[in-house]
Backbone:
């Protein structure tokens, strides 16, 4: 991922990242990409939102098999975040693909 390669993207790009993403820190990844992708839209989810927020909501089996992917910081509502990210993506693509 470099400036020249990102600048070549010709498709609409919507990037969402958690502000506290420890696996792909926003500054070096999502923010960097959004800076160089023409007309990219970046949404940083505020608060203690980490990388695993994008994993499905966990059931008992998921909590047993992959607990680190199921534990969010206090006050982080995974269901609400999934809902808002989905709605934002639909708005973005409806707007950009309608052109």
Residues:
């Amino acid at each position: 991922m470099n400036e020249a390669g990102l600048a070549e993207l010709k498709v609409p790009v919507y990037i969402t990242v958690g502000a506290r993403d420890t696996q792909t820190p926003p500054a070096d990844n999502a923010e960097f990409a959004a800076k160089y992708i023409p007309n990219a839209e970046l949404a940083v989810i505020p608060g203690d939102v980490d990388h695993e927020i994008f994993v499905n909501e966990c059931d008992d089996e998921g909590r047993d098999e992959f607990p680190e992917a199921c534990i969010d910081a206090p006050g982080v509502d995974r269901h609400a975040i999934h809902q808002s990210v989905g709605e934002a993506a639909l708005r973005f693509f409806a707007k950009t693909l309608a052109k």
Remarks:
- The CA atoms of residues 60 and 67 lie 9 Å apart.
- The longest strand covers residues 14-18.
- The beta strands are 14-18, 41-45.
